Amino acid sequence: MSVLSTDVLIVGAGPVGLFAAFSCGMVRLSAVVVDALEAVGGQCSALYPEKPIYDIPGHPRITGQELIDRLVEQAAPFVPAYRLNRRIESLTRGEDGRWLAGTSAGEAIDAAAVIVAAGAGAFGPNRPPLANLAEFEGKSVFYMVRRREDFRGRRVVIAGGGDSAVDWAVSLAEVASEVHVVHRRPKFRAAPESENRLHELAAAGKVDLVVPYRLAGLVGKSGVLEAVAVENLDGGRREIPADVLLPFFGLAASLGPIADWGLDVVGRTVAVDPATSATSAPGIFAAGDICSYPGKLKLILTGFAEAARAAHAAHDVARPDRPLHHRHSTDTGVPGL
């Protein structure tokens, strides 16, 4: 097994993890970023990519996906290595004090320090219990939308009744050839204005509300979807011709293997020293919603500050022979690694 070596392993590719990658670069540390989702962005991309955020400094209004795109661009000069769609399954400390992580993809990552920026833990989609689902995943079944244009002219079935399902139904109705929304009940669990807009589109014939129905099967072969089978509460079954299925049943969050790393776990968070973001394990730091301390304020901007502190503290671990003198970016610019 080949081993990927880096200064810092960052667990989580949400906004805080991405800013941690930038912060590491600013103190001349290399970084590898690992995330369980198939794309960077965490909840910002998976749950509310087109919803506005109003409390990011310098941005009176910015969508979740726009924020992620800016953070990726900001970290790009330091070329962080992204390892997505996998989890850190094991983490052990060697006699030399470095950490060796094993991923669910069978990789090994050697790092001097670790920054855990996993939000509320490892996120994964709640998958519908459909036969042969894995055959279609990533080809015609998707759990998140990266670009609306990818669905232009396609027949889309959306399953779910929450904000993500309703918001994407409203948005994709502008570009898809057909949009069908499958939900078990007539009432949706979405913002009232969004649900009102959905019903307006349904009345105009631009969205087909398939209620009360539930998913029953996938029709197609080799990952190419031809139709989605649904059934009502009485067992009545029908097939909806479709090119794409978007099941929006939320994300399941769990500390998962993080709970076994010997850290001081408080509920579903990791206790840290607020001065350094250090956990109870030497060389492991935490930032964002995953960490806790007295007076903790769960905001993205708080996570940014914690990530910056973690990167500076990680420098002392990864490069103890190279003193770090704090200087403002207006003086240093973007340093090279």
The H-and-E topology, N to C, reads as: EHEHEEHEEEEEHEHEHEEEEEEEEEEHH
Spans of at least 5 consecutive residues with low confidence: none
How helical, in percent, are the residues? 10-25%
Radius of gyration, taken over Cα atoms and rounded to an integer in Å: 22 Å
What is the name of the CATH class of the largest domain? Alpha Beta
What separation lies between the terminal Cα atoms? 27 Å
Structural class: alpha/beta
What is the CATH homology-level superfamily of the largest domain?
FAD/NAD(P)-binding domain
Got a strand count?
A: 21
**Which architecture of the largest domain does the CATH hierarchy give at level 2?**
3-Layer(bba) Sandwich
Overall geometry comes to elongated
Overview of this protein structure:
The chain has 337 residues and is α/β, with parallel strands linked by helices. The protein folds into 2 domains: 3-124 and 252-332, FAD/NAD(P)-binding domain; 127-249, FAD/NAD(P)-binding domain (3-Layer(bba) Sandwich). The chain is built from 8 helices and 21 strands. The protein has helices spanning 15-26, 42-46, 64-75, 133-136, 163-172, 192-203, 300-318, 329-332, and strands at residues 3-11, 31-34, 52-53, 62-63, 81-83, 88-93, 99-103, 108-116, 122-125, 155-159, 178-182, 208-210, 213-221, 224-232, 237-241, 244-247, 251-254, 265-266, 269-271, 284-286, 291-292. Strands 1, 2, 5, 6, 7, 8 and 20 form a 7-stranded mixed β-sheet that branches. α1 packs parallel to α3 and α1 (15-26) packs parallel to α7 (300-318).
